[in-house]
Predict the 3D structure of the following.
Amino acid sequence: MDEDAIRRETERVRADWAARGRHWDRRADEIAEQAARMNAPLIEAAEIAPGQQVCDIATGAGEPALSVAALVGAEGRVFATDLCPEMMLGARRRAAAQGLANITFRTADMLALPDADAAFDRVICRFGLMFCPEPARAAAEAARVLRPGGRVAYLVWGPRAETTMFTVFTAAAEAVLGPLDTLDAIDFERPFSLGAPGALAAALTDGGLVQVEEREVRFAPRVPAEAPFWQAQFDMAFGRALDGMTEAEQRALKEAVQAGFERLREGDEVPLAVHVRIGTGVRPQ
């Protein structure tokens, strides 16, 4: 991809997330349990420890940056970074409410971080690398700002078909709105672009990292069928599209999603499957 194409795609991603920002902010507190479930394996894979200097890329609504800030303590610092400042409004508010004085927020592209070489002990990114037009180049930029021997950890979605929430959302959207490839406001392809086994590891290796490893992480929660367990993710996944829908279209889409989960119901619960992948690598000494 040439530089002009990268700039156009980056601006498209920025505009898309700017439009979603308020939906993520509004729902972030509701998905705290899910956020913690995703944070734990990523933080473990990154080997986060007190006193470290950590760059969190694609901070969004605030996780895992806020959790990492608590872990690194007063001697450490987290530089929370996102392409879209609108996405971090809620994160700033929550950091202040938690009294986290060791976190710095800044707007930056993961392809061009505003940091000196060898500035960080760790670089982490949860659900961000998939949206970058050049993942290997982003990995190379992460390697640049890492100290020799420093570690990166990325978390991405696995294949879409292996995460129940998105299979139900996709089927409902296609039933109500038509083929998704004709709808600019809904993109259920890009979030899973690094989901195939080996794709994430290849990006890290091509970015010059060594000791690269990739592994799958699966969850199988069973949620109360009568609980509004899908509504927060619904708003965040469809946010920009919802803004352009009529009330009737919104109602029809929600009813289709609810019916999709109802078909999966087992007694009083709905079984869900979640598949994410974690890739780690080290900057060469």
Q: What stands out?
A: The mean pLDDT is 92.
